[in-house]
């Protein structure tokens, strides 16, 4: 019963589309039998997040103004990976673009849906270690501030609400647990 879809889709139509998302509206019969509509945002890329950790347990956060929330946000390095690209390759590219860092070792720590009530966006989060520094090359749409800090400080920023980005919160909390369990 739990895996049976209780929604009956009668019709659908694309409402909007660009290079990153597609919005579709569905005419549905809801689980209670009522007629209605449901909107779904389809993401055209996989969301990729990286928590870089050096030997002294420092990490790097990226600060930027986020248009949808009209607010400045501190986040782990993250970006989109095309579905035809290996997720790890996308992670390596995003880490280098945003921070200039390269990593010798990669560990996938989390797979999650970011807002499954309205979108199908899926994300993968990695921990990157064995770091070497380089030059960041952000995309033209990014005005980034890169900040190196102790991982514990980033963890405290999650706990006190200074970091609110969902991938960053989940990734930092999971990394904290893995550090406590000596798995990183």
Structure at a glance:
The protein is of the alpha+beta class and 184 residues long. The protein has 3 helices and 10 strands, in the order E-E-E-E-E-E-E-H-E-E-E-H-H. The protein is elongated, with a radius of gyration of 19 Å.
Based on CA atoms alone, the radius of gyration comes out at 19 Å
Number of strands: 10
Question: Looking across the biggest beta sheet, what order are the strands in?
Answer: 7-4-9-8
Shape: elongated
Largest sheet: 4 strands, mixed
- Give, in order, the helices and strands: EEEEEEEHEEEHH
Characterization of this structure:
The protein has 184 residues and is α+β, with helices and mostly antiparallel strands. Helices cover 20% and strands 46% of the residues. It contains 3 helices and 10 strands; from the N terminus they run βββββββαβββαα. The chain has a 4-stranded mixed beta sheet with strand order 7-4-9-8, sandwiched between helices. It is elongated and about 55 Å long.
